[in-house]
Amino acid sequence: MTIKRPRFSPEFRQECTELVLSHGYSKREAAEAMGVGKSTLGKWVSQIRKENSGQVVTNKVPVTPEQAKIRELEKRIKRLEMEKQILKKATALYMSDSLKGLK
Description:
The chain is mainly α and about 100 residues long. About 70% of the residues lie in helices and about 0% in strands.
């Protein structure tokens, strides 16, 4: 039997971290108030602090809506670059077939 973990939106994660970072709540107080685990909230706060200090954070789950948007755009760029490579190969193949037809 697998345990389903709750999914929290980036907006909710940001709201939780702001309680600690901006409003002076302790991690325990904020976690209890928002109904999340203290360790979970601690990870989110740590991630935000690292990003605010300029460190690159490569977590699977974005904490802020901006991070979610960046992740989405990075995936889109990767897909477009892959499509570009496919089109280059297809063009090269088409051109080589066209040249064979001229001979």
